[in-house]
Write a structure and sequence with these properties.
mainly alpha
């Protein structure tokens, strides 16, 4: 994984932590969602000014932005694809259903750590 892919993955992680779409991030920083997608895939070499806009939009300071402790060493594109698919399945549900699913998912994840 090169530096552009690493930074792109970190941006994606932070964006998903805020439960933002690429469209939302793009709107906040003044770029298209497709541009955000290229950044997240490591296909765009962005300026430090753009990186600063992204960090401010995602409400993280520089130290937090460059802390990669949560970044997996697995294939990031495959992992993100699976996360996005799960996210989409949940997005289609109504709030009462999501509130029922949440504790079940939390318990499943807890059991998997054992």
């Amino acid at each position: 994984m090169n530096i552009l892919e690493t930074i792109g993955l970190r941006i994606r992680e932070l964006r998903l932590d805020k439960q933002w779409t690429q469209e939302k991030l793009g709107e906040v920083i003044g770029v298209s969602y497709s541009y955000v997608g290229r950044i997240e895939r490591g296909q765009k070499n962005i300026s430090l000014q753009t990186l600063e806009k992204i960090a401010k939009a995602l409400e993280v300071n520089e130290a937090e932005f460059f802390t990669y402790s949560h970044t997996e060493k697995l294939n990031p594109s495959e992992k993100m694809r699976e996360i996005q698919e799960i996210n989409f399945l949940l997005y289609k549900q109504d709030l009462p259903s999501i509130l029922k699913i949440k504790p079940i998912l939390q318990e499943m994840l807890k059991q998997m750590k054992k």
